[in-house]
Amino acid sequence: MQNLEDRDIRQRDIIPREKLAQCSATVIGVGSIGRQVALQLAAIGTPSLQLIDPDIVAIENLASQGFLEDDLGSAKVHATASMCHQINSQIDIQCEQNRFRRSRNHGNCVFTCVDAITTRQRIWESAGTNAKFYVDGRMSAEVVRVLTACDPASRAYYPTTLFAASEAHRGSCTSKSTIFCANVAAGLMISAFCKHLRNIPFDYDLSLNLLAGEWTCNSL
Asked: With a threshold of 0.85, does the pTM exceed it?
């Protein structure tokens, strides 16, 4: 068996190994965006991962969410955990096939990948406010929005997005979604996470319209 010590050697100048080792990540929702977030977290070497989602893999999840045909009928959390372990056998994964609950323990880095604004509100109030790093990925068709909160200014801004009138990208991720858009959203969320680890400026509200080629970002 090969020595895996240097699996991250090409990213060490970009992702601080020592800081990453202190992170425990919670991914809430492992559908279109969340599954890709989990896979990327496993790939970069996040040591601990908690996956939360109540759903099972259905036929409509194959193309848009990247699940395997063999995953059909399995819990999304278990199917995602299996792929994460194939990517990184050393990662510790906790699977919870349930909806998010306020009383649930969570990691110090929270990745919110859910459809409903009311669910985001509950997650923020119970997990986001005390997490060291919090990021929310939203997607509708070919439009992505990523909101990051990990300092006083961005933490004050994020709650202003948690009501229906301010929802920039309406619609369910289950109605119109593509794997390529989900991968872009996940990549932007992991990029924000890595900027946090490096203590460099980040965009607290970033929107990308892939169809129109429009990019909007706001930094604090």
From this structure: yes
